[in-house]
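Hi V.,

You were right to ask for the full record rather than a summary. Here it is.
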Amino acid sequence: MKKGVFSLALALVFGVATATEPIAEEKKEVKTEASTVTWKAYKVTGSHEGTVALKSGSLTFDGDKLTGGEFVADMTSLISTDMEGDGKAKLEGHLKADDFFGVEKHETSKLVFTNVKSTGKNSYEVTGDLTIKGITKPVVFDVSVYGSKATANVKVDRTKYDIKYGSGSFFENLGDKTIYDEFDLVVDLEF
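Predicted structure:
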């Protein structure tokens, strides 16, 4: 009887010990071709939108819980999707120039998650370091994860990255030429 109780106790101890060992974090590579990053920027007289391609990306999970992420955007792929012809070419050229993203010197932008807090089932508040034009600043945004897909909406204040062209915060009397400081990124990921 004592031997049976002892064996049962050992089985329970070792069974519990194995069951409570931490699950190794798993890094899941993002399918860059199937994922999209859409930008939308605003001015007094309207808005423009377009896309930028991901060069690489990954999300890190502990079981089914999001714990981290890292992404690199190919800034040379920046395009406008709401214009055509000469206007489109002119806008894209200006966005890639030093007035805005300076893609000749800064071909990539990067986002690294620094803190991930669960806010509900499949929902997270993420703090990350966003690097644009070689300048790194923190951003906070929400991420939702469903199966092998994740979505996020990120508001970015471009002036924090030395992109001040047409900003009413830095220049007076711009009138209807004023471009708002914040732009939106809508991110749809598959992994």
